[in-house]
């Protein structure tokens, strides 16, 4: 069978990436088979033009995929992987987006010569603005690495790390990061409401402010700290606000604790 890619799990992140791959034309939907127990999610995969089956028993007996992407929860990985062991130790490259789960776990279940790429994406991959960070084991061929890098580039920016242990920090920063930013937006909306703005205006101001500032930080040649200073008039309103956020390094300490908690959870999920 000619399927190039099997996507295992088509939930939030799996579907976000799948739509990017197909939308960019980097892979044809007819080259993808999705394995997903949830009927509604299978229907969404089918709407993209992919074959969708409920479990491994639905895969064609003669299928020999180039790539198997594992996009299930870390807690389910060990059980799920057993069903794909027949593709291990061979020409199929496994790509895992699961938090915490190490290459060694994949090798122990699929065979120690199995090509494995860990990738930590983030949710903005759904709109082509993701941050994907990869770590590959020594069995991944240059050809497979290039093919996967091309697929991932459809979802946003791609970076790599040489030390797998850094994937826990990556997960805590860019993998979980959109969650922190969404909460910051929620908090800014709540504060805007407290300051008297109507709900719709509060939401519009908060979202556009974060969007505009993030776009400026991404495109400006200036460091974020310099941009911050450009907003901050001497003895003005921003200075008054930043005294609260930056006093005693309040926000830096909170974000450092936040990232550390997520990093420690990533380590736990992998053990
Ligand atoms: N959400 C995010 O922003 C990010 C998530 N990740 C990683 O992506 C992975 C998936 O997370 P997320 O998409 O949020 O989770 P979801 O729960 O949304 O998606 C996982 C999907 O896998 C399905 N599934 C369960 N068992 C199997 C199986 N045996 N075969 C095929 N599919 C199965 C689940 O179905 P059911 O619900 O019926 O069990 C579910 O639809 C996780 O490992 C997470 O660490 C990484 C970066 C960011
Ligand atoms: O919350 C999680 O565990 C996953 C991994 C990174 C983002 N979501």
From TrEMBL:
TM regions (residue ranges): none
Pfam families xrefs: F420_oxidored, P5CR_dimer
Keyword match Zinc: no
Class in the EC hierarchy, top level: oxidoreductase
Pathway: Amino-acid biosynthesis; L-proline biosynthesis; L-proline from L-glutamate 5-semialdehyde: step 1/1
Protein origin, superkingdom: Bacteria
Record localization: Cytoplasm
An example Gene Ontology molecular-function term: pyrroline-5-carboxylate reductase activity
Keywords annotated in UniProt: Amino-acid biosynthesis, Cytoplasm, NADP, Oxidoreductase, Proline biosynthesis
Main location as per UniProt: cytoplasm
Domain Pyrroline-5-carboxylate reductase dimerisation span(s) in chain numbering: 164-269
Domain Pyrroline-5-carboxylate reductase catalytic N-terminal: 5-100
NCBIfam families associated with the record: proC
Protein family: Belongs to the pyrroline-5-carboxylate reductase family.
Function: Catalyzes the reduction of 1-pyrroline-5-carboxylate (PCA) to L-proline.
Cross-referenced HAMAP family: P5C_reductase
Name used for this protein in its record: Pyrroline-5-carboxylate reductase
Organism: Aquamicrobium lusatiense
Lineage per the UniProt record: Bacteria, Pseudomonadati, Pseudomonadota, Alphaproteobacteria, Hyphomicrobiales
Gene: proC
